[in-house]
């Protein structure tokens, strides 16, 4: 049985989105249970929505939640009884195998470090997720946890990416650095210095610099960048995909001739949606924390939240932070 502590508070669409997503998850997977820390006023709504899945649902009382406009400092000092903090404490105590939060990213980072700590040798834990490509999925990190990073901290992310793959059975992942060009002299001083460190310490795992227009070629396993560049790249990609899917659907629906082939192109659109829709890739892991913590978009709807929960369950069943830490120590030792 996999137990997930879910921080349902702080999202744009309210906690009921998370309740319905948890219900869908438990309907499809009988080996999952959920712990929901909630303010007392929400317990009745949670019980009503979760219905027959209450035997696998545990509601825990908390006094408040982290606001989206809370600073990390405020969350650390004033939100010790928040739903986010309680979730992380449940994971630290072993009552939950992992945590999924829809809340404030900065707060999640500092509270995770408070309750769980960071892996030895990691200065800045980072957000990471796998993106669909022409070939194999691409692990991209950082996605917004750290706006500025040194070359040494970027190297730590390279080690983390390699360790994450090795913990899952891939002994030779190809890791690249995001840059504005592939030549050694391109990029900021930080990126050029990071490239030299990667080449020296990652050896055959390092695949060099990679430009943005070649991210989805499918020949890489991971790409490393600071959180500023990663967040912009991710959100630009998501926005472009959403626009392309909408445009394709609109063009197909507006054509009288194509309406005759509705069953065929509808099935094709569904296949494309399953492969590239941002809603299906909204869960991001917080790698470098001594625990299993993931984040989903604050704007997540029921569908996006459910996919993030399913992603979290898959991660817990295929690798955990202990195995990743062991691989990290082998690489850096």
TrEMBL record:
GO terms for biological process: fatty acid biosynthetic process; phospholipid biosynthetic process. SUPFAM superfamilies: Isocitrate/Isopropylmalate dehydrogenase-like. It comes from the Bacteria. GO terms for cellular component: cytoplasm. It catalyses: a fatty acyl-[ACP] + phosphate = an acyl phosphate + holo-[ACP]. Keywords: Acyltransferase, Cytoplasm, Lipid biosynthesis, Lipid metabolism, Phospholipid biosynthesis, Phospholipid metabolism, Transferase. The keyword RNA-binding does not apply. GO terms for molecular function: phosphate:acyl-[acyl carrier protein] acyltransferase activity. Its EC number is 2.3.1.274. The keyword Aminoacyl-tRNA synthetase does not apply. Homodimer. Probably interacts with PlsY. Catalyzes the reversible formation of acyl-phosphate (acyl-PO(4)) from acyl-[acyl-carrier-protein] (acyl-ACP). This enzyme utilizes acyl-ACP as fatty acyl donor, but not acyl-CoA. This is Phosphate acyltransferase. It comes from Thalassolituus maritimus. The lineage of its organism: Bacteria, Pseudomonadati, Pseudomonadota, Gammaproteobacteria, Oceanospirillales.
